[in-house]
Amino acid sequence: MDVLWEDATMLVVNKPSGVLSTGPANVPSLEADLQAWLQQRQSAAGKPVVRLVHRLDRPVSGALLVARTARAARVLSEQFQARMVDKRYLVMVEGRVDDPQGRWLDIIRKVPDQPRAELVGENVAGGKPAVLKFTVQRRWDDRTLLEIQLETGRMHQIRVQAASRGHAVLGDVAYGSQRVFGPQVTDPRQAAIALHSHRVAFRHPKTARPITVDAPLPTYW
To answer: Residue 107: in which H helix or E strand, if any?
Structure first.
């Protein structure tokens, strides 16, 4: 378990790509692995409290906040709802993004009965505003590295908004990427995409002091 920051009330883990953040019973997930790891480490009766207060998509890696008490889960969830948590992502996209920085505003909805999202018009049922800011970190002839700050947290938001502008995330075949990315896998569900939650800033749920945690990029980047 790659723990980036920890105390008695919460921890921040560096989620690997290809792993579900959470899932049904008997389905492998980071949440289940973390609970088993804590159980083994503390060697005490009863299951340890593990509450994921947000999620990362299966092919996405990076910093994930986990509460270890019910109170910490409630306080951190309130921070997310109030948009007090600063989440930064590094993403490698296809093509050259010419503007050095900018803001993308769209309407996104989950596609009915499918595990994907899409852009829609303002009056379409289920549509919700999706907003992010981006800054170009580096350009190549055929790809661009962006840092992204989310203002909203919609399903597959970064992936959909980037792909809709002709800049699919590398390796993200679900949204049109033509590029291979990450380690080779036999199960396509375990494939990585070039999207990494590299920084999260929040207030400690007990002391309210500001905390910033950085998650190093996987070696295959």
So the answer is: strand 101-110
In the residue annotation, 113 being an active-site residue is answered as no
Rounded Cα–Cα distance for residues 27 and 33 (Å): 10
Domain range spanning residue 16? Answer: 3-209
CATH code where residue 153 lies: 3.30.2350.10
Q: Which of 33, 57, 86, 214 is the catalytic position?
A: 57
Nearest to 161 by CA among 199, 133, 123: 133
Q: Please say whether the beta carbons of 197 and 56 come within 8 A.
A: yes
* SS3 at position 54: coil
Q: pTM here? A: 0.92
| 190-215 pLDDT tens trace | 899 999 999 999 999 999 999 999 99
Residues 201 and 85 sit within 8 Å (Cβ to Cβ): yes
